[in-house]
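assembly run, all chains below
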Amino acid sequence: MGTVPTKIASGAKAPIDFDQSMAGRKPRSIKTGPRAYLTRRYRLSASHRLHSDVFTEEENRAVYGKCNNPHGHGHNYAVEVTLSGPVDAETGMVCDLGKLDEFARTHLLERFDGRNMNALDEFDHAVPTTENFTHEVYRIFQEFAGARVVRIRIEETGNNSFEYGEELGRG
Amino acid sequence: MIFLTRKAEFSSAHYYWNEAWTKQENERVFGRCANKNGHGHNYTLEVAVAGEVDPVSGFVVDLKELKEILEREVVSVYDHRHLNLEVPEFAAGTGMVPTTENIAIAIWRRLEGKIPGAKLHRVRVYEMADLFADYYGER
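ok done. output:
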């Protein structure tokens, strides 16, 4: 916990358009209030197949079970993005929610929603488990310029969820 | 140390407005939330407290008492009220815009020191199922 993965899945990365994401932004007030955390929840659906080239076919079946089905399967994922920062004294906000939603649409939903994860560059060299997906989403949101993204939580199903990031509320 | 979370709900109206700004600035920054007729939400409040378990009662805090404190300090003040017009911490002149972040901070301030035997750990306020703010008392 606490350390940022420099690179989890290799492959081509979509360029982050900072100029675009900063366009029209009001300069941040120097008057700031206490530190708070804001969490936004996004939903996306994608398919995957858990299979590692390191294992034999038999080993893959033993390790991944039904998740190794060659035809793949899918989930409705819920992705929670937690931002941390001082509450701006003028707006009462940690960050501009519209900018976060715009970033999430471009860099999360358009990249993963309705896709087969095994076919994406992000998972060229990594098995698209939700652990690896959580690391990848954390890495993606480190590029968000509006506030610091400190934690990612992903529900794969109602029964399985995964979290990565800092422990909250420690100053 | 054990953590206990109690939930409560309230429904309130609010709007976002910074009195130091022009109407145009308010509308540019806050968009539809700057409509002075207000709009509303069903808020869900989650209050987490931390403490040691009493060896006799087996409680970290008396839940009935915690429920009453939340009712008295928060729900009776916020529920079916207009936050900007009827709740003192968000009144004109305070400079406190009733955003989800500021509501979490205000509720922390209302509850701090009022829960016997346990330490206030976290105030979480859901404005909607897909948006919530947490406050841990950090400055």
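The interface with chain B takes residues 26, 33-42, 82, 87, 89-94, 97-98, 168-169, 171 of chain A (CB under 8 Å).

The two ends of chain A are 16 Å apart (CA to CA).

not gonna interpret more than that til we talk
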